[in-house]
TrEMBL record:
Keywords from the UniProt entry: ATP-binding, Nucleotide-binding
Molecular function terms from GO: ATP binding
Family membership: In the N-terminal section; belongs to the PINc/VapC protein family.
One Pfam family from the record: PhoH
CDD domains: PIN_VapC_PhoHL-ATPase
InterPro entries named in the record: P-loop_NTPase (IPR027417), PhoH (IPR003714), PhoH2-like (IPR051451), PIN-like_dom_sf (IPR029060), PIN_dom (IPR002716)
GO cellular component, one term: cytosol
Protein name: PhoH-like ATPase
PIN domain boundaries: 15-150
Domain of life: Bacteria
Origin species: Rhodocyclus tenuis (Rhodospirillum tenue)
Length: 471
């Protein structure tokens, strides 16, 4: 009996999570993400949701969605709300805890300096009250607001960020798309090697301990007197199939007059020029050549090989400084100021043909412009792109949900390329770990029709490289 009692006392208490409004508006399904633990919603949270539900923004849409979710949960029980509503039914088994909604007026005991009329402070008062009512139970405030969490900790309360949507805690662990082979790789994997030639590429079938760690479409390389640059085509148990790459550093393999200047750019062009790869993600700081390489590959496959009918380019319209306000004109003209990067890169690509002359270059520019369409993200719902080369620029500012909305637009024969730098996120509530770009890189790795490369070296200018390094 004593052993049974001791075992029962070691069972951890079910936690009670108090949700701030910004968590619900950030992820409308957040009430289902706390597994066996209970969730508590202060009445002020519902009041703030009501204030934010009007409009067409992502926040307003999320506020309306969570309100509908809460209505569905409350309607699912015949018992009183004050006893807690079981979440197992409405969440379809995703959560097994209960949802509590504040049903009584709480006279909060807050320090004299904190104004009681402020919504955040009223939520803090609720957390203090719950902590006093349930002394043996962990009561935790969950908020995306850093200042709210600091205030809570200053009052002796436990507070956490909402972690469920974070793909990675540390972005240094993010998949880079490439791997350097160890010095003894061929000694360990070479004895039973088979090799043959196909379409100008050499293929190696290897067996060994490292093979099981490789991912399909991951690049492997080995520098030295006999350098190797290859891509993993197949992984079966402890066996892997490697294929050598097309060398895009050589002028004969130029893409719209552009050759790769480093190893990672060569890897990127091998993905961009491969029609079997439908989804490509390129990460890298400013000046690594993400947009230039993608446009060069897109123009070659649209105008020369005619693999795609046109290039569609879109990006998130998040200003870095103060917004300049209303922009006149059509959808394409309104997107013009946001597409400076496109114009800069087209200038570079247009100068690659030295023999064309001014008239020839002007004609080429008009032809290029007729095949590039600039679209706003706001009008993407419900569309389907057939045989298009879709470029999503500045993708680090997209949420995972927005990223899903965009990528699911792809119809038959469409290639989607996402470009971004996760160190330059301009959207509030998004971090390097929860960005939609980090999300898709992690979720798509190892799929045979997708590829990813993190570009390392800047190739813009020595000034830009130095600025990126020291500023």
């Amino acid at each position: 009996m004593a052993r049974k009692r001791a075992a029962r006392s070691e069972v951890p208490a079910v936690k009670l999570f108090v949700l701030d409004t910004n968590v619900l508006m950030h992820d409308p399904t957040s009430v289902y993400r706390f597994e066996e633990h209970d969730v508590f919603l202060p009445i002020m949270t519902l009041e703030e949701l009501d204030n934010n539900k009007k409009g067409m923004s992502e926040i307003a849409r999320n506020a309306r969605q969570i309100t509908r979710t809460l209505d569905e949960i409350v309607s699912s029980t015949a018992e009183g709300i004050e006893l807690g509503i079981p979440l197992a039914g409405p969440s379809r088994g995703l959560a097994s805890g209960r949802l509590f909604v504040q049903t009584e007026a709480i006279a909060g005991e807050l320090p004299a300096g904190l104004p009681t009329a402020k919504a955040d402070n009223q939520i803090l008062a609720v957390v203090i009250h719950l902590q006093q009512r349930h002394p043996g139970r962990p009561v935790i405030l969950v908020s995306k607001d850093i200042n709210m969490r600091i205030k809570a900790r200053a009052l002796g309360l436990e507070a956490q960020d909402y972690f469920n949507d974070k793909v990675l805690e540390d972005t240094d662990l993010l998949y880079t798309g490439m791997r350097e082979l160890p010095v003894d790789f061929w000694e360990a994997h070479g004895p039973e090697m088979e090799s043959w030639k196909k379409d100008g590429h050499t293929l190696y079938r290897l067996k060994g301990p490292l093979c099981s760690q490789l991912l399909v479409n991951e690049f492997v390389f080995q520098e030295g007197s006999h350098p190797l640059y290859a891509i993993v085509r197949e992984v079966v148990g402890k066996s892997a199939l490697l294929e050598t790459l097309t060398d895009y550093t050589h002028p004969k393999n130029n893409v719209w007059g552009i050759t790769s200047r480093n190893r990672e750019q060569n890897f990127a062009l091998n993905l961009l020029m491969n029609p079997e790869v439908d989804f490509v993600t390129l990460l890298g700081q400013a000046g690594t050549g993400k947009t230039l390489l993608t446009l060069a590959a897109g123009l070659t496959q649209v105008l020369e090989s005619k693999l795609y009918s046109e290039i569609i380019m879109t990006r998130v319209t998040v200003p870095v400084g103060e917004d300049i306000g209303f922009l006149p004109g059509t959808e394409e003209e309104k997107m013009g100021p946001w597409m400076g990067a496109l114009e800069d890169n087209l200038d570079v690509l247009n100068k690659t043909d030295d023999e064309a002359g001014d008239w020839g270059r002007a004609a080429t520019r008009d032809l290029i412009r007729s095949r590039i369409k600039i679209k706003s993200l706001n009008f993407m719902r419900g569309r389907t792109f057939l045989n298009k080369f879709l470029i999503i620029d500045e993708a680090q500012n997209l949420t995972p949900k927005q990223m899903k909305t965009l990528i699911t637009r792809a119809g038959p024969g469409t290639k989607v390329v996402c470009l971004g730098n996760i160190a330059q996120i301009d959207t509030p509530y998004l971090t390097e770990g929860s960005s939609g770009l980090t999300y898709v890189v992690d979720r798509f790795k190892g799929w045979e029709h997708s590829g990813h490369i993190t570009l390392q070296r800047g190739e813009r200018s020595r000034l830009a490289d130095r600025a990126a390094e020291v500023l």
